[in-house]
Amino acid sequence: MLFESISQITDLIKSALDDKRHSFRYGNLATVGSDLAPRVRTVMVRSIDPKATLSFYGDGRALKMQHISQNPKVSLSLYDPAEMIQFRFDGTAKICTDPKRTQETWAHVPPILQRDYTTHKAPGAILDSDGLDYLVNENFFTIVDIIPHQIECMVLGKNGHQKTLFVTDGFEWSKKALVP
Ligand SMILES: Cc1cc2nc3c(=O)[nH]c(=O)nc-3n(C[C@H](O)[C@H](O)[C@H](O)COP(=O)(O)O)c2cc1C
């Protein structure tokens, strides 16, 4: 597959997000905090808009949120093994500070999944033998948007590989073919 436009990419990812088994739902997000040590982890991509801004949810106490506050430059890769397509989004992560959007989105999170954002201890803390406690009237649900400044598409093919780089100045996207 040859990628010609940003809308082709956003349409492809958007339709993949509607398919519960599609691997594009799971991105590998890399952050680098003030200790300059990179850290990668899986996040579930929740949405993509026509500007290719991706969103995911997390617990506001997680280390990734500290990293993003210290250094908002992130990289997120998506890979579809069926089609051997990889996208790498390089951009800026923004932690949503709009309470209305956060509350409206939270209201659509199923109650069983809401629990993930209400643990008494922060994610990554040592779990003691008493198990997990949940807060009742408090949550750390946080939406993060990733605003890409470039997207690299790599497609492996039997008859040759293709790599295309899309770069934006915030208004327009330009496209270059790269050596794969
Ligand atoms: C399949 C899968 C999906 C995940 N989705 C998310 C997610 O959407 N958001 C999130 O914060 N963590 C998610 N996690 C957990 C992260 O990979 C990570 O372990 C956790 O967020 C703590 O990362 P941090 O300490 O670097 O912040 C997911 C893990 C797996 C295995």
Automatic annotation (TrEMBL):
It holds the Pfam family Pyridox_oxase_2. Keywords: Flavoprotein, FMN, Oxidoreductase. One of its GO terms (molecular function) is pyridoxamine phosphate oxidase activity. SUPFAM superfamilies: FMN-binding split barrel. One of its GO terms (biological process) is pyridoxine biosynthetic process. Residues 11-96 form the Pyridoxamine 5'-phosphate oxidase Alr4036 family FMN-binding domain. InterPro entries: Pyridox_Oxase, Pyridox_Oxase_Alr4036_FMN-bd, Split_barrel_FMN-bd. Its cofactor is FMN. This is Pyridoxamine 5'-phosphate oxidase Alr4036 family FMN-binding domain-containing protein.
